[in-house]
Amino acid sequence: MADKQPYLDALRELLAYELPPDVRERVTFLLGNPGASAYELRSACRRAAERTVLSYPRSEIVWHPTVDAALCTGCGRCFDFCPQQVYEMADGLSSVKRPERCVILCSECAPLCPAGAVTFPPQTSYHEFLKPREEEC
């Protein structure tokens, strides 16, 4: 598992939103626990994000990778890494086949790409998506 910092940043940002008490408690605990593993942090990010947007159709949430075919070398690292099977390999290149399977706020595959072909929208786009919906509540 890669660096813990992206997960810590995402968890801090998620605390700004209305989270169920059990999720908020877990996030707060993990943020205060320097021994928390990257796996624990990733799981907490996923759960918090899922619980935050549970009522929104996933197709409305723009959070998934983009692969620049001009940069892709076909190494397959993104494909091999992603447990959600977001990617497919075809004609020696990677492409995003199932964007709706991407875990919201996860971008762990991007730094694995030696060519820099995998990118994500800024996390702020996800938060901008949530803001008007929170105001409706």
UniProtKB/TrEMBL annotation:
Any one GO molecular-function label of the UniProt entry: metal ion binding
Keywords in alphabetical order: 4Fe-4S, Iron, Iron-sulfur, Metal-binding
Domain of life according to the entry: Bacteria
InterPro entries: 4Fe4S_Fe-S-bd, 4Fe4S_Fe_S_CS, Fe-S_Ferredoxin
Membrane spanning residue stretches: none
Residue intervals of the 4Fe-4S ferredoxin-type domain: 63-92, 93-123
PANTHER family found in the cross-reference section: ADENYLYLSULFATE REDUCTASE, BETA SUBUNIT, FERREDOXIN III
Identification of the protein by name: Ferredoxin family protein
Organism annotation: Lawsonibacter faecis
Lineage: Bacteria, Bacillati, Bacillota, Clostridia, Eubacteriales
